[in-house]
């Protein structure tokens, strides 16, 4: 029996128009009426996701910044924090002092000269062409509108999701996971009920046999429907 659904947000739950189909929302509402929790995974801040939760609340938990912050949405309370060390931040700022750098706290973006009084969960660095050849393959580099960004967080293993399951007395085989981003690939070995969205990378598709349609063809909705019969 499924007790939680956890789902990637960008490139998975929302489509190319940055929208969630009403039929998908109704399927999520249906499982929540069965007391099944709905959790969103994202590399962004939880505020970006909460924008979609305003008029039709459908989220119980948001795991943001690649697994480094958990928001209990119903109680409006952060229940887990794992932020970057200030000394490490200083080293990164010095190393990339000639690049555009964005520092992310819980709910806002800071400039690189104003971070000491904040918990920083993610550093995003706009890379120049010359930087790309020196970036280690185990670091997360994102491409957005023909620009490349190095993304740095304290961890990317989403182990906090496993800890959240324990806190809620949910077993791994009681979680339905739907992902579409490479940063979440370590979860596949831990969660047996994992589906890969159709527009995800070959890396993810090679890791599991369970697949669904793309985000533009309601891939998430199709998986959830199987558990709403």
Q: How would you write the strand order of the largest sheet?
A: 5-4-3-2-1-11-12
Helix content: 10-25%
- Calculate the mean pLDDT score and round it: 90
Content of β-strand: 15-25%
CATH class of the largest domain: Alpha Beta
- What is the number of strand segments? 12
**Major sheet characteristics:** 7 strands, mixed
SSE topology:
Elements: E1 4-8, H1 9-13, H2 22-32, E2 37-41, H3 46-50, E3 61-64, E4 69-72, E5 77-81, H4 86-95, E6 100-104, E7 109-110, E8 122-127, H5 129-132, E9 140-144, E10 147-153, H6 159-167, E11 175-179, E12 194-196, H7 202-205, H8 219-226
Parallel strand pairs: 1-2, 1-11, 2-3, 11-12
Antiparallel strand pairs: 3-4, 4-5, 6-7, 6-8, 8-10, 9-10
Question: Can you describe this structure?
Answer:
- The protein starts with a strand and ends with a helix.
- The chain is globular and about 55 Å long.
- A hairpin with a 4-residue loop joins strand 3 and strand 4.
- The chain folds into two domains: 4-82 and 156-226, HAD superfamily/HAD-like (Rossmann fold); 86-153, 2-Layer Sandwich (Hypothetical Protein, Haloacid Dehalogenase-like Hydrolase, Chain: A, domain 2), CATH 3.30.1240.
- The strands form two sheets. Strands 5-4-3-2-1-11-12 form a seven-stranded mixed β-sheet, with helices on both faces.
- It contains eight helices and twelve strands.
- It has 229 residues and is of the alpha/beta class.
- 24% of the residues lie in helices and 24% in strands.
- The protein has helices at residues 9-13, 22-32, 46-50, 86-95, 129-132, 159-167, 202-205, 219-226; strands at residues 4-8, 37-41, 61-64, 69-72, 77-81, 100-104, 109-110, 122-127, 140-144, 147-153, 175-179, 194-196.
């Amino acid at each position: 029996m499924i007790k939680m659904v956890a789902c990637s947000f960008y490139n998975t739950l929302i489509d190319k128009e940055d929208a969630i189909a009403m039929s998908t929302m109704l399927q999520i509402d249906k499982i929540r009426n069965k007391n099944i929790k709905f959790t969103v995974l994202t590399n962004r801040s939880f505020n970006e996701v909460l924008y979609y939760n305003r008029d039709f609340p459908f989220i119980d938990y948001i795991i943001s910044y690649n697994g480094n912050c958990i928001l209990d949405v119903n109680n409006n309370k952060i229940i887990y924090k794992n932020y970057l060390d200030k000394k490490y931040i200083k080293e990164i700022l010095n190393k990339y002092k000639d690049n555009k750098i964005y520092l992310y706290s819980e709910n806002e973006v800071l400039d690189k000269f104003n971070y000491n009084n904040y918990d920083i969960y993610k550093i995003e660095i706009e890379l120049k062409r010359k930087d790309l050849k020196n970036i280690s393959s185990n670091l997360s580099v994102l491409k957005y509108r023909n620009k490349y960004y190095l993304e740095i967080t304290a961890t990317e293993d989403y182990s906090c999701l496993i800890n959240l399951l324990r806190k809620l007395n949910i077993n791994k085989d009681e979680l339905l996971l739907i992902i579409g981003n490479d940063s979440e690939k370590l979860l596949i070995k831990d969660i047996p009920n994992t589906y890969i969205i159709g527009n995800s990378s070959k890396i993810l598709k090679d890791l599991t046999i369970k697949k669904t349609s793309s985000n533009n063809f309601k891939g998430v909705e199709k998986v959830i429907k199987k558990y709403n019969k």
